Amino acid sequence: MQNRIMKDLETIHNQTILIQSTNQTAPHLETELEIIEILLNQGNQVYWLQCKTELKNCFYNPKNDSFRCNTCYSKVSNGLKIIRENNTFSNNLHVLNYSDFKDIKDYKSIFKESFDSLEELKSFTYKSYDVGLAAVSSLVSFTRDHQPNLVVYKDFINRGLITGTFMYDVAHEIMSKIKPTFVILFNGRFIENRPLLRVCQHLKIDYATHEKGGRLQTFLFRKNSIPHSIDAINEEMDWLWKNAGEDKHEIGEGFFTKKIKGIEDAWFSFTKEQEQGMLPQSLEENKNKRIITIFNSSLDEYEGLEGFGPYFYKDDNVGIEKICNDLLDVEGIKLYLRIHPNLRGLQNSQAEFINKRIRPLDSVEIIDAEDTVDSYALIRASDIIIVFGSTVGIEAAFMGKKVILLGRAAYEKLSCCYIPKNHEEVIEMLRDENYPFSEINTKEAIKYGYWNETFGLPHINYEPIGFNKGKYRGKFLKANFITRKLKQIFEKK
Is the model's pTM score more than 0.90? Predict the structure, then answer.
């Protein structure tokens, strides 16, 4: 079955297309090559916007290291050579550089010296562009801290704002000169992608973002939306399910089966280091109590993204602390907090809050990220699961558990979780062992599993070998040998 997303790409014929290159790591550059070749074969004029070391901050090179810049540019240039050598219509591919339109040196003195808070930085705008929010998203991803130190990372922020505003003006210039009818970019979240996305939205030009697909062999191509859009995911999930074949239940269940077994497909398994069947020692002595387990999220994963986070708490930490405090005097409950394995080894603001404000509370036992306790065994042993949007919520629902969802999630519209109206209702659901939980259909979770297994387009010329490695047209795409060696020598030093 060919899904609607594929048709979005297939229907682009005889147009002027702008595609931006910003992330040369596999499979993202290879995905760009794939898209470019499809568009060329469909009779389009394609303008490929490349960075020729102009940008001062990007996801691949957050420290603005010249050796990484040169390596990136060399690899992208080699990708261009592959297209020139193999595509019949490569004469319709035109390369643009940012310096063709503006000089980034003109943007070095237009910002204030510092920001007093993360909220002030988030709200900082340039013209009609939310450049501060994009800078925060990139900074949080770089530091793995949802509340990074703005003084320590002052240079990172400044370079990000310079890059973002420079790119915003360049994007406007490009739109006025080549007048693209469609624009394609990576992800849309980071400081180097968001300007182009915003210009498209302001000028009402159709665009698409690309990212990894649901499986290694696929890539996402989402029209007029970013990969993280909950509304877009829900629409996609609903369409795929309605148009699926008779094996959709089997495919959807297969997603959860692989997750529970720790099988890695599209991304790393966070539970493969856990000991299968292992439970906390304290569970045996509390087996006659109601077992409630909170699974937290990595706060840095959604900080800087619009429309994410808890429904009525400031963040996960605050919500968990309030729940633990309000259960201090309740007997008959054993409360666990399972720290997300993705937080393993991090000493950031989230970890500091947990250690100082939640760990000392008598009402909760913390299972650390590094602990080998089996998360799925813990789910089976629990009566109620609490999540703030992490995937473990839908997995627990699939396993037939009562799941209280307290934050935005791609599965929030499926009728397999309980979504309280406020904190008071949360506490009532937890304190009252006779609380009248409404009937829900936990099998609705299978729709989410099916979506995960089927969204995205199949790679044609790219052959993945692991998560971040693969061959394009039978060869590994690399930077020039000398450029790679110089980067390796410098990084060792």
Answer: yes
